[in-house]
Amino acid sequence: MVLNKKPDESVANYCHRFQPPFLPRIWKQVNSEVWALIQDKEDCEGVGKIFEILGLNIPEISMTNSDYKSERLVEFHQLPTTLKNIIEYIAYEISIPIPDIHIDNNLDAPALGKFKNNMSLFVPVDFMDQNDPFKISAILVPLLASYWTGRALPGILSAEDLLTILKTLLDFLSSKKSTTNNQLLMQELNKTSKQVKKELGRAFKSVSAEKGNINISKWARGVNRSSQNLNLLLTQNLSAVYNSINNKTDQSHLLRYAVSERFLELRKLVGCSIHVPLQ
After folding, report:
1. Which residues fall within 8 angstroms of residue 197, CB to CB, at 6 or more apart?
2. Phi/psi at 142 (nearest 5 deg)?
3. φ, ψ for residue 181 (rounded to 5)?
4. Residues near 208 by Cβ (< 8 Å), separated by ≥ 6?
5. Total number of domains in the chain
6. Which of 43, 44, 39 is nearest to 204 (CA)?
7. Residue 60 located in a structural domain
8. 106, 104, 107, 89: which is closest to 144 by C-alpha?
9. How many other CB atoms are found less than 10 A from the CB of residue 115?
10. In 3D, which of 123, 193, 204 has the Cα closest to residue 171?
11. How far is CA 239 from the centre of its chain?
């Protein structure tokens, strides 16, 4: 076997068709079985359930002040091919709709924000010129994973703001006057049905029975680490994902996950191909 032999044209065409050059192909979408090998141990399902119920009834982005200036909405078909392919790939893998994308040149990096009370992706115009697919993916995966219901707030709000939301929910369940300054959220909660109140009550009771007091900072950290584990799976480039993380502790966590038995099992489960650039 001659290793440096130029691939037969038919083989090269086949590889180009079924292994897009922008990213390695994952052959299985993220489902509960896949997620079990991604989810960080601090990403408590019980706390996540509380925020999921909340997000299903009140738009998460409405609970933030993430208002950015939209200079223009970019139609999906107008995006550069590489960026369009990557967004389409990520959206397919994690089963989310294609996000609205707005230009905001006051930003240094892509961010989630609010436009007409809908969650949108805001990017500086020079992000459109990025041509490194792994760097683009490493930046976008955690942002797009926030489109899962109940997962946006930890990446946008501080732990103090998340705690305020939690306290407001408890006041709502106890039918007390809100002890927090989040009157707007309380007003929205009071508009929801009795069924929502019952579901939130059951979720709080369940997590309290299992964990006792809720450590919201710990949960938010776990959500972030889960998103970076997902990032590594979809991007399949440790260097790109590592460099996209600002926190050294989380960088160390990613390295440990990358060499763990869980990640090896995950790659086997999804049938992760290896990206081999063709000559």
Report:
1. 172, 173
2. -60, -35
3. -90, 5
4. 214
5. 1
6. 44
7. yes
8. 89
9. 19
10. 204
11. 19
| Predicted confidence (pLDDT) per residue in 49-89, tens digit | 999 999 999 999 888 887 788 889 999 999 998 899 899 99
Phi, psi of 121 (to 5 degrees): -100, 120
42 φ, ψ (degrees, to nearest 5): -85, -10
Residues 6+ apart with CB under 8 A from 164: 180, 181, 182
Q: CA 263: distance to chain centroid?
A: 18
Q: 């909405």: which residue's tokens?
A: 73
Domain assignment present for 229: yes
Backbone angles phi, psi at 131, to 5 degrees: -125, 5
Is residue 8 one of the residues assigned to a domain?
A: no
Q: In the predicted model, what is the mean pLDDT of the chain? A: 87
CB of 140 closer than 8 Å to CB of 81: no
Q: How far apart are CA 123 and CA 83, in angstroms?
A: 12
Q: What would the two tokens of residue 28 be?
A: 């299985």
Which position has the higher pLDDT, 77 or 24? 77
Nearest to 99 by CA among 69, 76, 126, 65: 76
Range of the domain at 221: 23-270
Residue 113 lies in a domain: yes
